[in-house]
Design goal:
- The chain has about 300 residues and is of the alpha+beta class.
- Among the domains are: about 80 residues; about 130 residues, no CATH class.
- About 30% of the residues lie in helices and about 15% in strands.
- It is built from six helices and seven strands.
- A five-stranded mixed barrel has the order 2-4-5-7-6.
- α1 runs antiparallel to α4.
- The longest helix is centred in the N-terminal third of the chain and has 42 residues.
- It is a multi-pass membrane protein.
Length: about 300
């Protein structure tokens, strides 16, 4: 009954479904794994933002990657108070203020590290910023990536001397007389009255729009796989029904049920058994119509033209 599955048409359908379903499932699983990775990254960033996690030497976390951003780093050196900078118009807990940034010169002679020692409310005022500790210190804080000018909430132009608009090596290279890393540290436990600057997650991590797009793509690929199976079953059922109808003679290709007349749409044979020819039935062209005289009205006999002239 299912021999039609071996026809070329059904071979093509079967091969397409057999290939399409695993491919759709694999693509959906891959998109789901990307979404789960984004969720794990978001949870990790939340944990690191709270100051949790193992403190590691800064040298082990460089060069900076999306996996190392936000980790607690430790570095030993001395602050360069002469080149302390203020980063104006920065928001913390819904209030506007400024960062206090002081370069740290490591004891091992490596490039200096920008350290945001904390945040203060109000307008950027050098007199309000406390002096950094003197001598050798050990700083512990969250490692951050260089800022992008397009994503900075504060002012980046028209800055006063001693102010910095964007935290990064590209901006500091014109301010400091020595080399600096293209990353910075926000101190986990600043000295009063400074307030700790929250760590930010790197671009492309966390539950952002891209993460939910991956979740949407997951659903789409799984729906495609289910649709391919559904269409195959629908075509299969229709083929079985058509084959059953042909066996029962319910189509034009076979006799009608009961073995009577030919299939609908076909003319009758020469005998035309379904067309009565007896009395009361339709007459052929050669048969006289006996009822013609009964139905024809009586007319007076025609008179010759001479008779009409004499009268």
């Amino acid at each position: 009954m299912y021999r039609f599955l071996l026809t070329p048409r059904w071979w093509a359908i079967n091969v397409f479904v057999v290939l399409a379903v695993p491919i759709c499932l694999a693509a959906g699983t891959w998109q789901l794994s990307r979404f789960e990775a984004q969720v794990d990254s978001h949870r990790e960033q939340e944990r690191l933002a709270e100051g949790e996690g193992e403190v590691r030497p800064l040298a082990e976390l460089l060069p900076l990657t999306t996996e190392t951003v936000g980790h607690q780093a430790e570095i030993t050196g001395s602050f360069d108070a002469e080149h302390q900078l203020l980063v104006p118009e920065r928001m913390v807990d819904g209030r506007r203020g400024f960062y206090v940034l002081t370069p740290l010169r490591p004891t091992d002679g490596s490039p200096a590290v920008p350290v945001v020692r904390g945040w203060l409310p109000g307008r950027a005022d050098p007199a309000a910023a406390p002096e950094p500790p003197a001598g050798e210190v050990t700083v512990v804080g969250a490692l951050q990536a260089a800022e992008s000018p397009s994503k900075v909430s504060g002012r980046t132009e028209g800055l006063a001397p001693g102010e910095l608009g964007v935290i990064g090596a590209a901006s500091l290279i014109n301010v400091l007389p020595y080399e600096v890393t293209d990353s910075w540290i926000t101190v986990r436990e600043p000295e009063p009255p400074l307030v700790a600057v929250p760590a930010t997650a790197p671009t492309g991590t966390g539950l952002d729009l891209d993460a939910f797009q991956n979740l949407g793509y997951t659903a789409e690929w799984f729906v495609f796989a289910g649709f391919a199976v559904f269409m195959w079953f629908r075509l299969f059922r229709r083929e079985v029904e058509q084959q059953r109808d042909r066996e029962l003679g319910l189509t034009d290709e076979g006799p009608a049920p009961g073995g009577g007349t030919a299939a609908p749409g076909r003319p009758n044979g020469p005998d035309r058994p379904d067309r009565p020819t007896g009395p009361g039935g339709p007459k052929t062209r050669d048969e006289p119509d006996e009822r013609a005289g009964a139905t024809r009205p009586n007319r007076p006999p025609e008179r010759p033209a001479d008779d009409l002239a004499r009268t």
